[in-house]
């Protein structure tokens, strides 16, 4: 008898039978409000009819044409569509399949373009699980421990996690920028540094919006030292935060962006975006792979971007996100264990803190499990003490209220008798 690898250990016992919109229907006959969106992927909801139709039509036309040999129409169309929403100056796109591949491509491009070896990443950042991307990841030791030696040339700088430091945001930003300058003087000189990579909202590391002033400080140093700034928009992009891109909560324009997850509603496709001049420093054929920019995934991405525009999903993320944030604040005022509520748009989280001020990992996990009993699917992040709430961008206010009620019941079930 074969079995699924223990590497596939699941956080919930749910097996999906079918799914639509914000709902997952389990093989157990129950339906679950899906506030995980496949880790921020099913942006237009499960099986949006326009995405399904686009993919179906493409399957009957061309499934695969390898882009270094024969180009296909969906990728040209997707390039036009993404071009409409990319920041000024970022006018070139290159495609892969997964987030990690995009991050790796961005890192390789930065090294090639600058001729410098080092990458600076930030504490708590998550950029993937391949050897190179795990090397830039510091959101948990499990992504690194036992897999050494990882890629050389990555150095970590502190990230302004004001809540953990117990500081106000400005103090945290000032401290982190000073430490970054110190890193340039002591560990990785600007002449050796190709790029800094940052998530506009720290995702797996705990759902912490990067303070705009920090991003602006990075931009200023990047310009001064001719270092490239990579915005990893894999989780924060395509409307998730209530703006099309997470970095647009600041005035900063990055040099390279990574894009994946929500861009194709569940089909595997990713991209890096950068100015043509920068992109043209890498050898054609030196990046990407056999399945990069698959035709069916690209067609689904085109339909996804159309739905995001036609159904005003960026505004919906902003407005439903505000309702969700208010509901979470209400829960926090009733439960002292919720130490912090934070997020942008539909990228929201609550952090559980034990009475002694340490991260309450046990409660984070227990709430996730109790939520399943309430018919609500949630994910943890941070050390497990942070429960993140990421509904599909099509979520309604009614579903937000429903989800908040289920979450409240789950927290009650866990904390009953403890407080
Ligand atoms: N970067 C960020 C910001 C992510 O959130 C993720 C996935 N959680 C990745 C990179 C890696 O993407 P993938 O799992 O598709 O390789």
TrEMBL record:
Top-level taxonomy: Bacteria, Bacillati, Actinomycetota, Actinomycetes, Mycobacteriales
Protein family (similarity comment): Belongs to the class-III pyridoxal-phosphate-dependent aminotransferase family.
PANTHER family: AMINOTRANSFERASE CLASS III
Catalyses which reaction(s): 4-aminobutanoate + 2-oxoglutarate = succinate semialdehyde + L-glutamate; (S)-3-amino-2-methylpropanoate + 2-oxoglutarate = 2-methyl-3-oxopropanoate + L-glutamate
Protein name stated in the entry: (S)-3-amino-2-methylpropionate transaminase
Gene3D superfamilies per the UniProt record, alphabetical: Aspartate Aminotransferase, domain 1, Type I PLP-dependent aspartate aminotransferase-like (Major domain)
Keywords, alphabetical: Aminotransferase, Pyridoxal phosphate, Transferase
Record Pfam families: Aminotran_3 (PF00202)
Transferase among keywords: yes
Known pathway: Amino-acid degradation; 4-aminobutanoate degradation
């Amino acid at each position: 008898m074969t079995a699924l690898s223990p590497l596939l250990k699941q956080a919930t016992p749910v097996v999906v039978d079918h799914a639509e919109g914000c709902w997952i229907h389990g093989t157990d006959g129950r339906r679950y409000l899906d506030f995980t969106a496949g880790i921020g992927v099913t942006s237009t909801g499960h099986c949006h009819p326009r995405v399904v139709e686009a993919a179906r039509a493409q399957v009957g036309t061309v499934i695969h044409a390898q882009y270094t040999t024969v180009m296909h129409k969906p990728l040209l169309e997707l390039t036009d569509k993404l071009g409409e929403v990319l920041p000024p100056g970022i006018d070139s796109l290159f495609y892969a399949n997964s987030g990690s591949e995009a991050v790796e491509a961005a890192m390789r491009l930065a090294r090639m373009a600058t001729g410098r070896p080092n990458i600076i990443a930030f504490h708590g950042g998550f950029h993937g699980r391949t050897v190179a991307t795990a090397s830039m990841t510091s959101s948990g030791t499990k992504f690194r421990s036992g897999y050494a030696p990882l890629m050389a040339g990555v150095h970590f700088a502190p990230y302004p996690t004001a809540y953990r430091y117990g500081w106000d945001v400005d103090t945290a930003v000032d401290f982190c920028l000073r430490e970054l300058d110190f890193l340039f003087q002591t560990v990785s000189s600007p002449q050796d540094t190709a790029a800094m990579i940052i998530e506009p909202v720290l995702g797996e590391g705990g759902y912490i919006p990067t303070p705009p002033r920090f991003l602006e400080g990075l931009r200023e140093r990047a310009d001064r030292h001719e270092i490239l700034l990579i915005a990893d928009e894999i989780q924060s992009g395509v409307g998730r935060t209530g703006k099309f891109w997470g970095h647009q909560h600041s005035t900063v324009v990055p040099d390279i962006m990574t894009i994946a997850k929500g861009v194709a509603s569940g089909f595997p496709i990713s991209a890096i975006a950068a100015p043509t001049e920068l992109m043209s420093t890498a050898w054609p054929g030196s990046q990407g792979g056999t399945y990069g920019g698959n035709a069916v995934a690209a067609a689904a991405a085109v339909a996804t971007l159309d739905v995001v525009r036609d159904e005003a999903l960026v505004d919906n993320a902003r407005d439903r996100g505000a309702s969700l944030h208010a509901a979470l604040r209400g829960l926090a005022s009733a439960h002292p264990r919720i130490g912090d509520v934070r997020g942008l748009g539909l990228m929201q989280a609550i952090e559980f803190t034990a009475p002694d001020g340490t991260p309450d990992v046990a409660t984070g996990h227990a709430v996730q499990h109790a939520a399943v009993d309430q018919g609500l699917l949630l994910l943890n992040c941070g050390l497990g003490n942070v429960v993140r709430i990421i509904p599909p961008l099509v979520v309604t206010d009614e579903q937000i209220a429903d989800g908040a009620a289920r979450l409240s019941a789950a927290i009650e079930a866990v904390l009953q008798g403890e407080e």
